């Protein structure tokens, strides 16, 4: 079974202290070619076919941002950890990408509009996920999409957000959403996992 630090990273964790070791997790650093290819393929199926503007919230060290940039998208990444943002800027140096320090729930992007908002393992940590989703929806262009990668981790005291709760939170936003199970694809995680991991892609317009 692949361990995943996300199940232990509830609000209050010192992300700056974790920054240097963050990429050690297979699905964080994407250093293994098979893991990297698996995430690249998923991302290509979730993001718009044409190059566009992608907002990566809780971007960490920028591994998914880099995949999106390699697929031709213009990326804006936001993370509350200055150390993570520094690593992301270094990882994407020379690419069409901007990284900002800020709150994923209310990213400092002004009135800018995006073709996709990408959020992995962040929503469940927020005190008001419904409010965050409503705000993220407002950041999309008319035909934009939300790409939300979430899960439920642990068996004794599980943490996370189940897919049915997430789709219920999305329902008032009047989009079309699909749930994609990710737990049974070990290539994404660097090994077998036993918890619930999934993606929801909500499209609008």
Nearest-angstrom radius of gyration? 16 Å
> Into which percent range does the helicity of residues fall?
25-40%
Task: Tell me the major beta sheet.
Answer: 8 strands, mixed
The low-confidence runs, each spanning 5 or more residues with pLDDT under 50, are 1-9
Percent in strands: 25-35%
Total beta strands: 8
Descriptive account of the structure:
The protein is an alpha/beta fold and 205 residues long. Helix content is 30%, strand content 26%. It contains 7 helices and 8 strands. Strands 1, 2, 3, 4, 5, 6, 7 and 8 form an 8-stranded mixed sheet that branches. The chain is globular. It starts with 14 loop residues before the first helix and ends with a strand. The model is unreliable at 1-9 (pLDDT under 50).
Keywords:
205 residues; alpha/beta; eight-stranded mixed sheet; globular; disordered N terminus
SSE topology:
Blueprint: H1 15-22, H2 26-29, H3 33-46, E1 53-57, H4 63-70, E2 74-79, H5 82-91, E3 97-101, E4 114-120, H6 129-138, E5 140-153, E6 159-160, H7 163-170, E7 176-181, E8 196-203
Parallel strand pairs: 1-2, 1-4, 2-3, 4-5
Antiparallel strand pairs: 5-6, 5-8, 7-8
Helix pairs in contact: 1-5
């Amino acid at each position: 079974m692949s361990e995943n630090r996300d199940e232990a990273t509830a609000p209050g964790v010192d992300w700056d202290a974790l920054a240097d070791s963050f990429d050690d997790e297979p699905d964080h650093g994407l250093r293994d070619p098979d893991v990297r290819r698996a995430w690249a393929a998923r991302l290509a199926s979730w993001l718009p076919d044409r190059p566009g503007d992608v907002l990566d919230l809780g971007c960490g060290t920028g591994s998914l941002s880099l995949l999106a940039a390699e697929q031709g998208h213009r990326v804006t990444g936001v993370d509350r950890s200055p150390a993570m943002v520094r690593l992301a800027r270094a990882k994407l140096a020379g690419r069409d990408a901007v990284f900002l320090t800020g709150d994923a729930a209310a990213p400092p992007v002004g009135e800018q509009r995006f073709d996709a908002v990408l959020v992995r393992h962040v929503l469940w940590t927020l005190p008001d996920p419904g409010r965050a989703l409503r705000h993220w929806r407002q950041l999309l262009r008319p035909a934009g999409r939300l790409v939300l990668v979430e899960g439920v981790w642990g068996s004794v005291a599980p943490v996370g957000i189940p897919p049915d709760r997430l789709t219920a939170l999305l329902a008032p936003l009047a989009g079309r959403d699909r749930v994609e199970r990710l737990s049974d694809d070990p290539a994404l995680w660097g090994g077998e996992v036993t918890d619930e991991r999934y993606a929801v892609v909500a499209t609008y317009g």
